Amino acid sequence: MGGVFLIFGIRSKDKLLGSRLGRCEVCGATAAQTLVRRTTKFSLFFVPLFPVRPARSFVVCTNCGRFRGAVREELISA
To answer: Given 3-state DSSP classes, what are the helix, strand and coil percentages for the chain, each rounded to the nearest 5?
Structure first.
């Protein structure tokens, strides 16, 4: 009895683009705000092949850990 064994999945990977000191919109604290770019790719046998969604950018507060979407001005200054 023959068969095919495939290992596939989707994986998200975060890349740190930079950080700056700023006021968090969620907790209100003045803390480092980290800019992160997240890419999500389809992988076959643990090899990433192609993106399944466009890359997204987030700002993460180092005080409360909350994510929020990054605006265009934050992406340009990074």
So the answer is: 10, 65, 30
